[in-house]
């Protein structure tokens, strides 16, 4: 009985935190007035040693439900292929609808995009750095290949974002 009560309390606290995070993200989205073409652009990737969950809320659009359904379906298919999963692909925890917003739960990352990395860092110059770069890049290619294997429409695949070591 006590264990059930503790689990219920933890679940309630987690739900309150998620609600608070959703509200904070709505405020940030309103302040920046950033719109996206589809759900995948709102995604974030994994912190180095502190993986966490981030809730992203899509803007209300005419085709948002279709984009949402497609993204959830595709992420679920990629996730279900556990034996072929690659560390270069962002983690997917699920999705939910709330009112007229569509939400996808993904891994969190603070590394920025590959473009950011190339602008902020010098190109790898020593052997170990070059090997590490290409090993990470191969993981990105594996992630792109797994997305391509879904046989999605070319326009869906072309819109994916590449973050440092991850494909979204």
UniProtKB/TrEMBL annotation:
Keyword Transcription regulation carried by entry: no
Q: Which Gene3D superfamilies match?
A: Phosphorylase Kinase, domain 1, Transferase(Phosphotransferase) domain 1
Q: Which UniProt keywords apply?
A: Membrane, Transmembrane, Transmembrane helix
Q: Protein kinase domain location, by residue?
A: 1-168
One of the record's GO molecular function terms: ATP binding
Q: List all membrane-crossing ranges.
A: 37-57
Name of the protein in its database record: Protein kinase domain-containing protein
Q: What species is given as this protein's source?
A: Oleoguttula mirabilis
